[in-house]
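Key result, reporting period 2: structure in, sequence out.
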């Protein structure tokens, strides 16, 4: 799961209710970088305001960890600390890109040569796949998309290895010519991880441990929860945090979203990505990773943005029960990461991360204003309201039918349209979301971070079904007895 479709869906859900508000700094003092106490004070207030069950953060400056800490608790009730394992989701992509670029530095992988020359098992039902280069994969410009007419994501979820995942691409197609457009697609980075396996003869997990985590001293990190157990995360359901296991898939280790790490370890990673301590890759490769492609402001595992405050490298990570964000500020030497074991429909880790970036500029960010609870309660009210209307409609169905006795069938039929519409909307809900976000959304996807929205839509469908059946029965029995 990645930040793009989560962001779009969150915006759509909020559109049911209200417009999102922005946060602006109140003051600035660039000569006063944040102290650990200032960081703690802001994050603790933000955790209290958001209600997130557990959060861990790290702020680095050049080759130093300024502050790594945890707040709140995990699903076992244990305190979250700087050494609590967290799922990072798509923050993993920068790890995978670094693994590939390390092999590029060694001459083992050719960045601008076709993937098929280096990964012969890769085949697709679209001759354009032969033009996909390794650079295209890492820049997300391969032409692969998670649209139903391109990659069958449901089919890939049954794969039990990266090799099998590549094999299952054999009947899939591209949405655009390689290099011509950008589309966020996890398959790009899973292909890159398989390339690492084929080139090195090591499993991707083993390569990551031996050549990334190990050299950086990231002893609490792994590319699979089989190696580093992690507590269940949480979803917000009508304002209540519910502990849930992460959504199960057959492939537990990928190149797109499997990294589990701690705040302390992630600090070491940010320092390395900033070119300090052990950068793992050459300056040229690091610059390549952190530069936009020709068609989009996405580098390789980093979004690249030129802002009024200077250059910012940002990537969000969104799973079904965990959220994360990483930020590098090359002009000032700071790095920031925020991880949470709660995944509501609106991601607050990004807002917290950007506020910490303000602190590094000597600014005083506005307190976090999280609308999670408000949105959840409004959705709960809409769900309860729908059920009440459904029950009232069913109770009054006999009176409703009596008043419409003798009317033309089509006039009576028009009265059923709201109920039929609610049922039709519910039936098509995942397809409508897929159309909105241009990626495949399944029913069980919608019952995690979007649970409140999904259950609200289900309540309206249930109310519609109740009214439709009660009124139909009243009309039928009324005419039969009449």
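The corresponding designed sequence is given below.
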């Amino acid at each position: 799961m990645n930040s793009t479709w989560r962001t779009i869906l969150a915006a759509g859900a909020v559109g049911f209710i209200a417009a999102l508000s922005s946060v602006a700094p109140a003051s600035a003092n660039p000569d006063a970088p944040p102290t650990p106490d200032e960081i703690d004070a802001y994050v603790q207030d933000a955790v209290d305001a958001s209600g997130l069950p557990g959060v861990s953060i790290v702020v680095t400056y050049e080759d130093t960890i300024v502050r790594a800490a945890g707040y709140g608790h995990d699903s076992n009730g244990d305190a979250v600390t700087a050494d609590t394992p967290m799922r990072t989701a798509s923050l993993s992509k920068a790890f995978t890109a670094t693994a590939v670029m390390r092999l590029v530095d060694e001459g083992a992988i050719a960045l601008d040569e076709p993937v098929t020359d280096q990964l012969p098992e890769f085949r697709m039902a679209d001759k354009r796949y032969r033009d996909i280069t390794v650079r295209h994969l890492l820049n997300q410009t391969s032409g692969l998309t998670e649209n139903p007419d391109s990659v069958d994501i449901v089919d890939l979820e049954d794969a039990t290895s990266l090799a099998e995942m590549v094999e299952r691409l054999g009947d899939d197609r591209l949405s655009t010519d390689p290099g011509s457009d950008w589309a966020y697609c996890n398959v790009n980075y899973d292909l890159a991880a398989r390339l690492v396996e084929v080139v090195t003869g090591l499993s991707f997990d083993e390569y990551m441990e031996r050549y990334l985590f190990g050299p950086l001293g990231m002893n609490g990190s792994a590319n699979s929860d089989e190696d580093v157990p992690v507590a269940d995360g949480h979803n917000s359901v009508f304002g209540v945090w519910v502990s849930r296991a992460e959504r199960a898939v057959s492939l537990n280790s990928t190149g797109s979203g499997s990294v589990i790490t701690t705040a302390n370890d992630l600090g070491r990673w940010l320092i390395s990505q900033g070119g300090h301590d052990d950068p793992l890759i050459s300056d040229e490769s690091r610059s390549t990773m952190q530069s936009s492609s020709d068609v989009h402001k996405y580098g390789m595992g980093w979004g690249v943005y030129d802002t009024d405050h200077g250059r910012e490298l940002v990537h969000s990570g969104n799973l079904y029960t965990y959220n994360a964000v990483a930020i590098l500020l090359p002009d000032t030497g700071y790095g920031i990461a925020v991880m949470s074991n709660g995944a509501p429909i609106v991601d607050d880790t990004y807002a917290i991360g950007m506020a910490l970036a303000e602190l590094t500029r000597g600014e005083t960010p506005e307190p976090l204003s999280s609308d999670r609870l408000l949105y959840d309660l409004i959705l709960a009210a809409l769900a309860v309201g729908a059920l009440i209307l459904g029950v009232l409609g069913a109770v009054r169905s006999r009176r409703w039918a009596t008043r419409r006795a003798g009317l033309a069938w089509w006039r009576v039929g028009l009265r059923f349209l709201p109920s039929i519409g609610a049922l039709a909307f519910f039936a098509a809900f995942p397809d409508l979301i897929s159309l909105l976000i241009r990626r495949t959304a399944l029913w069980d996807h919608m019952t995690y971070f979007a649970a409140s929205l999904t259950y609200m839509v289900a309540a309206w469908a249930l109310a519609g079904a109740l009214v439709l059946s009660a009124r139909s029965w009243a009309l039928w029995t009324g005419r039969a007895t009449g």
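The first strand starts at residue 54 and ends at 61. Residues 1-29 have pLDDT under 50 and may be disordered. This case is discussed further under Risks and Mitigation.
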